[in-house]
């Protein structure tokens, strides 16, 4: 039984069981993933995971409760589990208090997208990766395969999403223990595109054999590659949520209150098409939103609970009110011109474990790592010792932002705890007039 049929059979069973004024929602997630670990340029561990889960929520008036179930994949096994969960929720509901902020979407909406899988299986991809990495100490992790998400309600809502993707994160290690980190992700595996990404990392690897340059704390011209910019943006994404902004706890509070602006080059969207997330959430159909428009605040992500609490209009945001398919527009800088435009300064391919040093000021701190290079006259000269950065997003994407690269890079979440994550970011690289290193 395929995943969509499995979901529809579970839904049909629930629809036949509902009594009186009861209502329900049913969220479904499943994956058929291949995982491969690499070490010293060879396959060290490979495996397959096939799993599915549902979350059943039962509603009566202003009361609700939910239960999450791991499924076995057959109706003979899963229907009794679902029925038992329904009975348990019925027993719990009378003991609960009314939820004053419950605002259910009772529209009979429909959203379906099933992208035909065109990816080779993980064994073929692993073989190509090993072949391309011959002679290199490549350490990495590949996750590949289809993912499925469904949502339905007793009020007629139905959403289905199926797509295949891959995410390869890898590092090339030098004999001295230093490494260059890179990644390649998407929906279409192109062995030539991977070879180009690998060659870029190989070229950077050669510089790691040079004596490292020690820098004094201070402000330096810098280029943040898309993966480095992702570390900063991802820390602040939840700040676009209506609840965070209404409560005054958002790191983007100053932007949305008009006390700060970003560079006019900055345009950030929550998109529906082109990302790797369903066009719906448990809140209903998602909407395409302009979160930042030429440096100025735009729309915010509003869930049904925030809409009820703050008198707003819900726009299909997930309950956490963070972007699922964030995209920052590119600029006028060609990628091959990055070093020349940088001149002398820092080329930063990745940042390590960012955190807030001053949340209201959107001030972020963390460490440089994985092949940060010192550049002079448009040429890489030496690796730079690990240093701590501390700078405000309002400055990095504000007065300090000189240019953005033309083509945003698709970046997928690498998390696999419990299940492969969905969603995506598409970010350009950012050329900065200065970036602050503190120690």
What is the end-to-end distance?
A: 57 Å
Helicity range of the residues?
10-25%
* Global geometry: globular
Described by strand count, sense and barrel closure, the largest sheet is:
7 strands, mixed
| Radius of gyration over all CA atoms, rounded | 24 Å
Counting structural domains, the number is 2
> Class by helix and strand content?
alpha+beta
Helix tally equals 10
Uncertain segments are none
pLDDT average, as an integer? 95
Tell me the β content.
35-45%
Query: What is the total tally of β strands?
Result: 22
Describe the structure.
The protein has 439 residues and is α+β, with helices and mostly antiparallel strands. It has 2 domains: 3-207, PmbA/TldD superfamily (PmbA/TldD fold, 2-Layer Sandwich); 218-437, no CATH class. The chain has helices spanning 3-17, 75-92, 122-132, 191-207, 226-236, 242-246, 253-256, 304-310, 338-342, 393-396, and strands spanning 23-39, 42-60, 63-70, 110-114, 138-153, 158-173, 179-186, 218-224, 268-270, 280-281, 284-285, 289-293, 296-297, 325-328, 345-358, 363-376, 379-383, 388-392, 401-404, 409-411, 424-427, 430-437. The strands form 4 sheets. Strands 1, 2, 3, 4, 5, 6 and 7 form a 7-stranded mixed β-sheet that branches. A hairpin with a 4-residue loop joins strand 15 and strand 16. Helix 3 (122-132) runs parallel beside helix 4 (191-207). The longest helix is centred in the N-terminal third of the chain and has 18 residues, at 75-92. The chain is globular, with a radius of gyration of 24 Å. It starts with a helix and ends with a strand. The mean pLDDT is 95.
């Amino acid at each position: 039984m395929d995943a969509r049929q499995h979901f529809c059979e579970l839904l049909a069973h629930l629809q036949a069981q509902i009594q009186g004024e009861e209502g329900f929602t049913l969220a479904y997630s499943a994956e058929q993933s291949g995982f491969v670990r690499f070490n010293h340029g060879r396959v060290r561990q490979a495996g397959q995971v096939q799993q599915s889960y549902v979350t059943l929520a039962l509603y009566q008036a202003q009361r609700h409760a939910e239960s999450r179930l791991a499924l076995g994949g057959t109706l003979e096994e899963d229907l009794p589990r679902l029925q038992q969960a329904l009975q348990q929720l019925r027993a719990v509901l009378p003991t609960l208090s009314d939820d004053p902020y419950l605002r259910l979407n009772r529209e009979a909406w429909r959203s379906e997208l099933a992208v035909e899988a065109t990816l080779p299986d993980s064994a073929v991809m692993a073989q190509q990766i090993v072949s391309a990495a011959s002679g290199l100490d490549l350490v990495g992790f590949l996750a590949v395969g289809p993912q499925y998400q469904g949502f339905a309600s007793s009020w007629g809502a139905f959403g289905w999403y199926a797509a295949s993707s891959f995410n390869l994160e890898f590092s090339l290690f030098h004999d001295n223990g230093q490494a260059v980190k890179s990644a390649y992700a998407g929906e279409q595996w192109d062995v030539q595109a991977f070879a180009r990404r690998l060659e870029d990392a190989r070229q950077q690897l050669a510089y790691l054999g040079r004596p490292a340059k020690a820098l004094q704390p201070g402000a330096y011209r810098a280029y943040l590659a898309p993966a480095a910019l992702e570390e900063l943006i991802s820390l602040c994404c939840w700040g676009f949520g209506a609840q965070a902004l209404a409560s005054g706890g958002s790191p983007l509070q100053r932007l949305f209150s008009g006390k700060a602006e970003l560079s006019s080059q900055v345009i950030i969207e929550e998109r529906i098409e082109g990302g790797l997330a369903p066009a719906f959430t448990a809140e209903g159909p998602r909407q395409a939103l302009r979160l930042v428009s030429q440096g100025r605040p735009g729309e915010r992500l509003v869930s049904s609970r925030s809409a009820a609490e703050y008198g707003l209009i819900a726009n299909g945001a997930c309950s956490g009110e963070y972007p699922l398919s964030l995209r920052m527009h590119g600029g006028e800088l060609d990628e091959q011109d990055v070093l020349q435009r940088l001149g002398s300064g820092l080329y930063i391919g990745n940042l390590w474990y960012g955190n807030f040093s001053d949340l209201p000021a959107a001030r972020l701190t963390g460490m440089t790592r994985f092949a940060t290079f010192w550049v002079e006259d448009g040429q890489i000269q030496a690796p730079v010792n690990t240093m701590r950065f501390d700078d405000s997003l309002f400055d990095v994407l504000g007065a300090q932002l000189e240019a953005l690269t033309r083509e945003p890079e698709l970046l997928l979440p690498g998390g696999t705890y419990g299940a492969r994550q969905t969603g995506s970011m598409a970010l350009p690289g950012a050329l900065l007039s200065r970036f602050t290193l503190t120690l």
